[in-house]
């Protein structure tokens, strides 16, 4: 008899979580102005708001925490991290930051100016926010297959080369600071980018003199999909694939709270010394000295270890298999989700799930609220609220997909939790015809409104 799959780790410590009543949850939601970001963690039973900084560190990472070097300049922990980043990515210059959006802030301060255009696959919220804050424009060049949830294209994060070249032809080189490839592409459903597509984007960009930058928060998961889905890659190690992926870029930004397997941290890595020096000045202004950049030495040491663990196949297979477990259960239950299942989350199609809720009443946010009321599960809207308003017209932007993201923290929940999530969502799905009203915005910020927006029932 073939042995069943078992996780390549065992649990050494647990944290209690507490269920609540529906009546309690409805009161908490009202007090939170129906914004799930405003809920206290103690009010959440299973937290799928994000996979960013919410995972469990390994015993070896905790050991590194105890031996970190907290020197202000030139710490041993920085050297440890720099060597690990260069080993995995090939980039020689490193600037630590306190998290991924800080890396974007530093690098974009050096490279992006008013009137610029930044093409790429679907930009995530903070990325687009940093671009638009500088009065520049983020242009989505994702392939059309990404917006059909039933299409089984294995690399829905790919950039459409015709869309990309159209951007290159319609704008001057001086106004395109770089092409940004997000691996995996969160906004399109945690979907990977193929190595073939990365090479093609690099070749096309070279023809127009445009550098390539990677948004690399989930680069190891992207490498896993290349190994398991792309022809000719199955015999290569994850680390070999990562090294080749990054060889086609000038640099990268990283939110280490994802594939770095730590609770805080980020970095910029580059092979362009001129850009490095320019960005280093902004690191000192915004983050700290260039050899710590907002990170404690202990956290840099834990990150160096985490990057090594995250680029091993057994860990990635365990992590992504659990996400697939949830996705496949929902598919069997008839719940409409983005297919194939992505790397870090399952994305539920709220337009198909709640066809009676108007777009202007935010179906994905409505679904997130209903799931929380049903079972104390906190997800996040990847839809119209997150898409924000057009910075010029101030009209709502309605994305092609209106999604509820259920992000699975790394090495945190058991398969029993996964079954609980699937059952809870099925319960909501069974009463979907009763859900006909959504929500209206009563207050919002000028940019990145989804974090702090306040809502009321429509």
UniProtKB/TrEMBL annotation:
Q: Please tell me whether the keyword Lyase is annotated for this protein.
A: yes
Residues of the Aromatic amino acid beta-eliminating lyase/threonine aldolase domain:
47-423
InterPro entries reported for this sequence: ArAA_b-elim_lyase/Thr_aldolase (IPR001597), Beta-eliminating_lyase (IPR011166), PyrdxlP-dep_Trfase (IPR015424), PyrdxlP-dep_Trfase_major (IPR015421), PyrdxlP-dep_Trfase_small (IPR015422)
**Sorted alphabetically, which keywords does the UniProt record give?**
Lyase, Pyridoxal phosphate
Cofactor(s) in the UniProt record: pyridoxal 5'-phosphate
- Supply the Pfam families for this chain: Beta_elim_lyase
Task: Report whether Lyase shows up as a keyword of the record.
Answer: yes
Coiled-coil stretches, from where to where? none
User: Domain of life, per the record?
Assistant: Bacteria
Query: Gene3D superfamilies, alphabetically?
Result: Aspartate Aminotransferase, domain 1, Type I PLP-dependent aspartate aminotransferase-like (Major domain)
NCBIfam families membership? PRK13238.1
Similarity comment: Belongs to the beta-eliminating lyase family.
User: What protein name applies here?
Assistant: Tryptophanase
